[in-house]
Amino acid sequence: MNAERQTVYRWSLIWSGALVALVGAVLLGLAITRADAWARVAGTLGLSTLSWGGLLQALNALGLMPVQSALPAAVKPVGTEYVIAGAAAWLVGWVVIASGIRRAPVSSEGPSPAAGATLYPRLAQYRDFYWSTLGAYGGGILLAELVLILLQTFLSSGGGSAAAGESSGLAPTVAFAVSLVVASLVAFACGFVGASRARRVAMPEATIGVIYLGLPVPILLTLMEQLPDLQLSLGYRLREVTYLADMLGRPVIGYWLVFSLLVLMLVLGINTGFIAAGSGRLDLRLGFELFVARRHVGVFRPSLLLGTLAVLMFGIIPPLIVYGIIRAVEAAVERTRIRSLGLQDPLAAASALNRLKLREQSPTMMMTALSVGGVGVGVMALIIVLSVMSGFEEDLQKKILGAHSHVVVSKYAGQLPEYKRLMEQIAKVPGVEGQTPSIDNPVMVLADDEVQGIVLKGIDPETVGSVLDLRQNMQPGGNLDHLEQPQKIAPRRTMFGKQPDEPEEEEVEDPIIGKSTTSASDKVLPGIILGRELAAILRVVVGDRVNVISPQGAELGPAGLIPKSRAFRVAGIFYSGMYEYDAKFAYILLAEAQKLFGTDGPSGIELKVADVDDARRISQAVSRELGGYPYRSRDWGEIHRNIFSALRLEKLVMGIILSIIIVVAAGLIVATVIMLVLEKRKEIAVLKALGVSDGGIVKIFLAEGLQIGVAGGLLGLLSGLAWCYFILKVGIKLDPSVYYIPALPVKIEPVQTALAVVIAVLVTYLASIYPALKASSVEPVEGLKAE
Amino acid sequence: MALLSIHNVFKSYFLHGKRIDVLRGVSLDIEKGELVSLIGASGAGKSTFLHVLGTLDIPAAGELRFEGRNVFAMNDAEIADFRNRTIGFVFQSHYLLPEFTALENVAMPALIQRRDRTETYASARELLERVGLGSRMEHRPGELSGGEAQRVALARALVLKPAVLLADEPTGNLDPATGEGIHQLLREVNRDLGITAVVVTHNEVLARSMPRRLRLVAGQVTEA
Ligand SMILES: Nc1ncnc2c1ncn2[C@@H]1O[C@H](COP(=O)(O)OP(=O)(O)OP(=O)(O)O)[C@@H](O)[C@H]1O
Ligand SMILES: [Mg+2]
């Protein structure tokens, strides 16, 4: 009667409450019907039952309604009254249900003999809710978010100081990194302060704080992506934030990831604060706790570490076979040795046998090894996959940037006949290494029967080398300089000296070099440079003739507008290593292109900058140098935004998926540490009796989990790096027809690699919190009685 | 002022909805340097009383004062520290930590305080010599006999020279001769170091040899 909590249910209230709530649900359903939003709502709800990620979408769907109803009446969707009535009924229903559940009345027994005695003082001080803690947690997460947004905006928009002139601020990624670190520290500090002041973990306060104060910001940002009105009113102010998130392609994912990171930091801060000060005084010393923890789980012993490393490097089976062989041989050798020892001195044999026995492994040790291995596998997979993806990204970037320029300056409309003057101006901007004018337009190329739609680019051979890798990419046999001296291109002779049956061109050739030609096939035609794949498709080689048909600059013919057609001779073939470019690009002389397209200047100036990652800043500087409108300047990130953001998103998603391995390993750690706690209940009680505080016990078991995490993380790092070096040095061949890249690329990015390890250690730390708290709550008396 | 004074302490256990009142308003003063024996029938609540006295158990009501300070009003870390510095426990069974050697076990309370290792081990060694276990320092508890383990536990309780030693039937599982040896040791530390000791025992003879005798009957402690 006494100790058990008794609950009384008033079924009449519960049933009527359920009825009211049901009515509310029906009304909500009606509202959805009226708004014709069933498909959307069902979709998002269905998603959310399938996976956690969909929960976000459900939130969006629900969040949409109130926000839209708060908007001016003009945009009010139909069925708003139903939404309000339904939501109210739904809430009232639940309140009624809640009021139907009551704590049982106090037992009717008379007062105990202890009535009137002083209550155990610490019980008398119990309080379950602190407003100040709520303030610290909720305010902390909100503050962290605001700090992140404001600092990001402040840093990347030039330190905010207009007086400092055009200092233009940090690169957005750097600004983001700095502000993220600061915001994480803020979240951590607030959690720490809150928990150490309250001297308990204070879960209710944390939950309420995060939900009511922390969630609104990411929800607002998410809604902003979906509601144009909101975007209009807020988007401008938050442009630095959204710019960065947009780089991911799916900004919403970015917002929520950052939010979870901040919550994580808050939780870490809370936990650390509780451990450090929760038991009454700030104590961050660890020596004793580590001493005990190391005896409980011996992670850092050579056999375990080497064994796990071997498994990580070579898979499970081979090391197991080797281990089995070694153990079998060793056991046989030992037994014969002990027997011969025993024949002389039975006592010596007994002691040797004893030593052999000591080496046997306990189940906890096996669990520990498994957990270390699990974390190791996760970290290793993360490092390898991310490095390979970075390798692909780098390769792609190199190829894109080889074939394309870093920054393109153009006009919002029209050509740049004044490009010479602009180029002089641009040359003054620091960081610009090379520039070349260009035109590009889509055209068709024809050679005999083959046709291909491509991008034809007019270039200036003199300066193009300072921006593009075209010169290095030329295949032997052709020459870039022949664009300017088309007479040097040797027309291809067919093998039998027979004239190829080409129809005579009716159009008058307008030779730049005024040299008349004898025959059609030997006529001096302007040169064109094709990509290798394009040449293969058209089945042409250097010296062959191709026709270019351009819809732009169409000529008036007898039957209306007809596309312009010009003949060119293949002056060279380039190979960039990227299929897209090798199949879709051709280059001609700038002057030829102007003539072909009927323009009076290049359409843009392409720039090369010293530091590719600094292109955005330099692009802004160029635009400022040119005085803005009508000129504009775009960097490669902007021009090829889709492909890079797709890559980044892919990498992020891969990272998240692979982190699941680490999370599973963390589950293993939870199990291991819980097992340890159960196994060591008596020891925990004894330690407490000897004067270890609750905080000390938490530290001991956290240290045990962390040992596993650190060992796993380091082993994963080691094996991951080893694999990466293997791929780098030995290489893994790829099918060139599929990947267009001969071997698996790898690029080890230190930050990302370190992050994988740090994440693993953080996750194991988080995983050990619960078991460690469990351990600290073992009452000394309980443990002493548990025999 | 009494060294330890407990006032109106209640403690009950709850099992299957039934309340078992073990301590019913115990009040008692223990002076500095006293050697006290506590006897009572099995199940009378002697261990419970000793646990409350040593802050290991939480009473439902009542006060515990050490040199006038209200112990239960302190926070968790302070209580842990109090337990570490002022109270030494010897339990019915030894409760040594199995992963550590005898020497480390004895040194444990000092290590918890983060005292200097070499000094601590030196005094632990000295104590182990004194209880006659100079040759068993590197043994793990599993490699000690019951009597040896109990002596290690006693050494552990004494390593920080606590103000109070609480012993719960320290000789319950031992043969009379060994038990007498341990009691002899208890008397010695009480006399030589001035450590106040409360010893629970079933042995009437031993109990009678102590200067002050208490009896726990029906949830009350009386002088016997
Ligand atoms: N956790 C518990 N739950 C319920 N009852 C308990 C619990 N612990 C002890 N008791 C009861 O409380 C009473 C006192 O127990 P305690 O261990 O203090 O006795 P004791 O005097 O030390 O006995 P002994 O001399 O046999 O050691 C016993 O009757 C026991 O059954
Ligand atoms: Mg007992």
From TrEMBL, chain A:
<feature type="transmembrane region" description="Helical">
    <location>
        <begin position="206"/>
        <end position="224"/>
    </location>
</feature>
<feature type="transmembrane region" description="Helical">
    <location>
        <begin position="253"/>
        <end position="277"/>
    </location>
</feature>
<feature type="transmembrane region" description="Helical">
    <location>
        <begin position="304"/>
        <end position="326"/>
    </location>
</feature>
<dbReference type="InterPro" id="IPR003838">
    <property type="entry name" value="ABC3_permease_C"/>
</dbReference>
<feature type="transmembrane region" description="Helical">
    <location>
        <begin position="82"/>
        <end position="101"/>
    </location>
</feature>
<keyword id="KW-0812">Transmembrane</keyword>
<protein>
    <submittedName>
        <fullName>Multidrug ABC transporter substrate-binding protein</fullName>
    </submittedName>
</protein>
<dbReference type="Pfam" id="PF12704">
    <property type="entry name" value="MacB_PCD"/>
</dbReference>
<dbReference type="GO" id="GO:0098797">
    <property type="term" value="C:plasma membrane protein complex"/>
</dbReference>
<dbReference type="InterPro" id="IPR051447">
    <property type="entry name" value="Lipoprotein-release_system"/>
</dbReference>
<dbReference type="GO" id="GO:0044874">
    <property type="term" value="P:lipoprotein localization to outer membrane"/>
</dbReference>
<feature type="transmembrane region" description="Helical">
    <location>
        <begin position="365"/>
        <end position="389"/>
    </location>
</feature>
<feature type="transmembrane region" description="Helical">
    <location>
        <begin position="652"/>
        <end position="678"/>
    </location>
</feature>
<keyword id="KW-1003">Cell membrane</keyword>
<dbReference type="Pfam" id="PF02687">
    <property type="entry name" value="FtsX"/>
</dbReference>
<feature type="transmembrane region" description="Helical">
    <location>
        <begin position="752"/>
        <end position="773"/>
    </location>
</feature>
<feature type="domain" description="ABC3 transporter permease C-terminal">
    <location>
        <begin position="656"/>
        <end position="780"/>
    </location>
</feature>
<feature type="transmembrane region" description="Helical">
    <location>
        <begin position="714"/>
        <end position="732"/>
    </location>
</feature>
<feature type="transmembrane region" description="Helical">
    <location>
        <begin position="44"/>
        <end position="62"/>
    </location>
</feature>
<feature type="transmembrane region" description="Helical">
    <location>
        <begin position="12"/>
        <end position="32"/>
    </location>
</feature>
<keyword id="KW-0472">Membrane</keyword>
<feature type="domain" description="MacB-like periplasmic core">
    <location>
        <begin position="368"/>
        <end position="623"/>
    </location>
</feature>
Automatic annotation (TrEMBL), chain B:
<dbReference type="InterPro" id="IPR003439">
    <property type="entry name" value="ABC_transporter-like_ATP-bd"/>
</dbReference>
<protein>
    <submittedName>
        <fullName>ABC transporter ATP-binding protein</fullName>
    </submittedName>
</protein>
<feature type="domain" description="ABC transporter">
    <location>
        <begin position="4"/>
        <end position="224"/>
    </location>
</feature>
<dbReference type="GO" id="GO:0016887">
    <property type="term" value="F:ATP hydrolysis activity"/>
</dbReference>
<keyword id="KW-0547">Nucleotide-binding</keyword>
<dbReference type="InterPro" id="IPR017911">
    <property type="entry name" value="MacB-like_ATP-bd"/>
</dbReference>
<dbReference type="InterPro" id="IPR027417">
    <property type="entry name" value="P-loop_NTPase"/>
</dbReference>
<dbReference type="InterPro" id="IPR003593">
    <property type="entry name" value="AAA+_ATPase"/>
</dbReference>
<dbReference type="InterPro" id="IPR017871">
    <property type="entry name" value="ABC_transporter-like_CS"/>
</dbReference>
<dbReference type="GO" id="GO:0005886">
    <property type="term" value="C:plasma membrane"/>
</dbReference>
<comment type="similarity">
    <text>Belongs to the ABC transporter superfamily. Macrolide exporter (TC 3.A.1.122) family.</text>
</comment>
<dbReference type="GO" id="GO:0089705">
    <property type="term" value="P:protein localization to outer membrane"/>
</dbReference>
<dbReference type="GO" id="GO:0005524">
    <property type="term" value="F:ATP binding"/>
</dbReference>
<dbReference type="GO" id="GO:0022857">
    <property type="term" value="F:transmembrane transporter activity"/>
</dbReference>
<keyword id="KW-0067">ATP-binding</keyword>
<dbReference type="Pfam" id="PF00005">
    <property type="entry name" value="ABC_tran"/>
</dbReference>
<dbReference type="GO" id="GO:0098796">
    <property type="term" value="C:membrane protein complex"/>
</dbReference>
<dbReference type="InterPro" id="IPR015854">
    <property type="entry name" value="ABC_transpr_LolD-like"/>
</dbReference>
<keyword id="KW-0813">Transport</keyword>
<dbReference type="GO" id="GO:0044874">
    <property type="term" value="P:lipoprotein localization to outer membrane"/>
</dbReference>
